[in-house]
Amino acid sequence: MIRLRRGVLGAVLALVSTTATATATAMAQEQAELALGVLRHGANFHPLGGKLILDLPDLPDGQIYEGLEEKGTVDVQIAYRTAPLRILLKPRLTAKAQINTAGRTSFFSAGAEWRQHILRGRVYGQIGIGATVIDGYRFTPDPFQPGISSGEAWRRYDVYRRRTSFGSKILFNPNASIGVRVDRHWAVELAWEHYSHRRMFSETNPGIDNIGIRIVRRLGR
Description:
By secondary structure, the protein is of the alpha+beta class. It has helices at about 1-30, 150-160, and strands spanning about 35-40, 75-80, 90-100, 105-120, 125-135, 170, 175-180, 185-195, 210-220. Strand 7 and strand 8 form a beta hairpin. The longest helix is centred in the N-terminal third of the chain and has 28 residues, at about 1-30. The radius of gyration is 24 Å and the shape is elongated. It starts with a helix and ends with a strand.
């Protein structure tokens, strides 16, 4: 009888412990977050559809493929996420500033992200969508325009070879990430950020993909 009582007591204590752990994990998942990331700007990788550029034919001297002008530079991203809302599958509202460290295009976005946890909250996948304003070019000036001075042509050519024409100042920002929670306060994410407008605002739409790592800090206690 004593052994039975001890067994029941042990089961109750285990259940309480498991419930407390699950509650603590759930509380960690419900808080607002700040994230800091480093991303490769112009990674030429699109996980949703075939934009993995391995080999391109040569262009005439002085010309550059559209969309590759900013390839390989580095961005620093800071992001804020709210706690999940209680509507529409519990999205987190987000605000992001992604600054290029080489003076190329930077992105300023607002949107929403949806998260799904596995392994008792230790790992999660996340997808999102947002609207973005860029500080870069809708269309870069044409360095080959007839009639301009040599100095102006060289100035425009420097812009042409270093900056991308995105076709719009407003872009869409589909994004995805995989996160691993280190503890209740910290997580690390592998992140993908895409920016384009799907030719909604002009025929010029090279798009750009960025891949990197973010460190995430849960706010609150």
